Fold each of these.
Amino acid sequence: MQVPSPSAREAASMYGTAVAVFLVILVAALQGSAPPESPFPYRIPLDPEGTLELSWNVSYTRELVHFQLLVRELKAGVLFGMSDRGQLEDADLAVLWTDGDKAYFGDAWSDQRGQLHLDPQQDYQLLRAQRTPAGLSLLFKRPFSTCDPRDYLIEDGTVHLVYGILEQPFASLEAINTSALQTGLQRVQLLKPDISVPALPPDTRTMEVRAPDVLVPGQETTYWCYVTELPGGFSRHHIVMYEPIVTEGNEALVHHMEVFQCAAELESVPQFSGPCDSKMKPARLNHCRHVLAAWALGAKAFYYPEEAGLAFGGAGSSRFLRLEVHYHNPLRMQGRRDSSGIRLYYTATLRRFDAGIMELGLVYTPVMAIPPQEEAFVLTGYCTDKCTQLALPPSGIHIFASQLHTHLTGRKVITVLARGGREREVVNRDDHYSPHFQEIRMLKKVVSVHPGDVLITSCTYNTGDRKLATVGGFGILEEMCVNYVHYYPQTQLELCKSSVDPGFLQKYFHLVNR
Ligand SMILES: *[C@@H]1O[C@H](CO)[C@@H](O)[C@H](O)[C@H]1NC(C)=O
Ligand SMILES: *[C@@H]1O[C@H](CO)[C@@H](O)[C@H](O)[C@H]1NC(C)=O
């Protein structure tokens, strides 16, 4: 980051103040008037208590995002913005503050120490500030890209939103001490793909998979496991859509949910509803790993393309399903009850193609290793031309969604498609990837893969806090580099990954140790 000379900084600050004064808010006496009708398809609570609620929409043609921030119990102001990994230092912020007399809104940035500065260029543009029965509602817009080197570039993939609550007036923006505020972060995909919703078949039926009346433990993290089964004689169906069902009032508590199907070989799976790490959990649940549906905070319904569906039921597939709900309870609230889950929409009229899931990336082996104390170490896995030549139908496959996966040190994941020795297109990329936010994402554009194509998946890791090498494996302290791609028509190829050849690795170490 470029540090301007003191005089430039002073000038910037003066200009910024003028802009802020110009934007002095008239908190109109509109108390009691109905809240305006919502043009925002997306909504998310920012803090665990839900006092800050963000709604937004995306205009791809104008390349900007409209944000509506609802502040339920306004004290003396609020900070909202974005940063690389959710820290309040080096963040790009919109700030609403008061000096006790007037209220101001401005576009600001924080330096490495968390000190705030007004931006010379005001890119968060306030459109409306209104008191509603629910609280203060701020409407502002922000372009994806601002050309201001200090601003955050809004890209596809994860965005770390940050917030802070101002409890008292401050004489100036610069006087705000961020380390003394109540702050936090929320991860979200801001730039959701703008794809049209496919029509559902007329005979669509629904099934709710949810754990009834869970008493959410008063601890920060709980993975709740619940077993349920399909009705007897349930024949083969296609899932064509699914959506979350979140118990009202628990929107900030339910972080993500997945529905898995158990292995077909299991004759039966015992009933269970409890923490996934409980000693009472039946061991057989470890064989329930075939993903049928996955949802994470901020995501909406998931639709299969009109020509494909995900098969379940019938011969050769298990009747048993496992629901996993991740509760994120940083305030350690006691006594909360929850019955969240996922509603599956399915049809007996099978669509033309079965959808499938293919795992791309690196084989989990100890030779997939990351040295300690590395800030950005890259490992790459290949789905080679030989594999795609052998396994894909002549007309190819079509990838429409993707779920990236690493363990704790993963920071970026990208899959690109190469053809004829050249990179052709990006299948999916997340430059702000977080292992704490894994959702199945619809691709903006379906990617067709033909026999002979190569799929290259690269993962970037940060092992700055580790003393020993990190190796590939299933353990949470071991690593993975995976992209689960959702595609049709389904093929026999479930895994298309590579690993480092131990022989070559030995030769390499022999060479470097010489
Ligand atoms: C987003 O919301 C703003 C503010 O209500 C509205 O003017 C705009 O038309 C909306 N844009 C889209 C793409 O929906
Ligand atoms: C900011 O707040 C922190 C924590 O309350 C305090 O230790 C620090 O001295 C404050 N910094 C300034 C410049 O006031």
Note: Residues 39, 57, 59, 66 surround 2-acetamido-2-deoxy-beta-D-glucopyranose (ligand 1) (CB under 6 Å).
Amino acid sequence: MGSHNQKLLILTIFGMLCFIFLWTFGLPENSIKDPDFNDDSTKMNLMNDAPRKSNKDENVPFNKIPPSISNKLSTVYDVDGNPKEYINSRYYVNYLSIFRQQHHQMLSMLVQKADLAFRNNSVYSVTLKSQLAPSQDFHDYLSLARYFWPDPNGRNGLPYQKRDGYPNPEIETVKDYAFLRKVFKDVENLGFAYYFTRNDSYVEKSIYRIKEWFINPETKMNPNLNYASFIKGFNSGRRTGVLDMHPIYRMLQSIPLMRSSSKWDFLVENQLKQWISDYYEWLEITSLGKNEKISLNNHGTYYDVQAIFLLSYLDREEEASKYSLEALIHRVNTGIGLSGQQHHETIRPTSWFYSVFNLQALFLLAERSQYYGYDGWNYVGPKGQSIKKAIDYLLPYALTDGKGWPFNNIKEFELNSFVRLLELAFVIWPDDKYLKALIILRPKAKSEQALEYRNADWEDNYLCVWSLMTNKQLWTCVE
Ligand SMILES: *[C@@H]1O[C@H](CO)[C@@H](O)[C@H](O)[C@H]1NC(C)=O
Ligand SMILES: *[C@@H]1O[C@H](CO)[C@@H](O)[C@H](O)[C@H]1NC(C)=O
């Protein structure tokens, strides 16, 4: 990484940490009061190569401060002209204390989660379900279509009818979906916890879960989604069921972190790779996979996210890179209108939820594109569409709790997931309106979490900051 990039990265992280810290705790009593603390350093952009301006602040009597302190950065050149950047001491002291505190907090929460995953000895398996897919194979994954309901007058409730936006609680009678997500989440937490603690127990448990879900003949899942999002009365599942698998990136990003452990089992991993390879082939050759790929709404966006991570895990990095660039451009062009409205989401009865949900996938695509060297965050489509426009489109309605939202919306205006994107937006695009909005919205999101909303699992984005520092090994920035 070039020193310029490093400088930007450090500044970005510094800014975000200051911001998160100040947000969470307010200024500590003993912090050094500084009139321009937490101003433009919070606005540094990770990607933009804008030259750094001097840090003149109108409110500071600039001529009274020695130059080395008035700047947040000092550059010292050695005899060969090689620069070394120093963060101004006052900021550095604050930076370190913020860093220590946030790190400690994050780590104790992460270890708690990993310990829960470690201690959980119940079986996670597709074979536990009491109803079978039409194939009559217990190993075939089955999930029931979320928005389909039995006909009260029909025989056996058939035919099922669609009520978009109204989940049928009957879906809970098949646990494959919940188990699948639990496997991904547990392996993620175990791998991340290993990364920080080097406790091999977490690796052993990950291997155990991977074997149980993907490999053991008694408990494994077959590498297909033939019966995902299944409507009773039909012979197969639907293409929309492919979405069930999208959080697989949680597991796939965690695995490389565990390979350094003596408890990592490469034979098991080879079998997992075979499974992933078979599954990717299934995605490519079945009509379910193909049709999901060409869908225009969040289903298509998440298909792309999934495909990029799968290709990358299979060491097909060139394809992953190419795919990531094409997907980013395609989804911004087709998923976002010139106003920033996401038309394919706003037609849904739960239009707010799906607008945020698709935006999360776009953030994941942008992150992947950046990982492969392309600045997808700032890509602008032929009509002026961009990811930033999509978040800016939603922002005013978030601020009014949905008042004035010009679309049908049968669900509440949940803010938690949106605020999480907003915190990331604030780091990516230097725009004060995001900070102003966060002042209002973050407390609301926090109270939603206290009510245990769906996405309550959110630890102040510290791990997201960490991921920005570690080449995206721990990408937890969207939920
Ligand atoms: C590793 O984690 C396990 C599971 O929580 C725990 O029982 C064990 O004491 C830990 N080992 C060390 C060395 O901390
Ligand atoms: C273990 O995980 C399963 C599946 O998510 C869950 O139903 C069960 O309550 C968990 N058990 C413990 C002890 O946490």
Note: Residues 89-119 form the longest helix (31 residues).
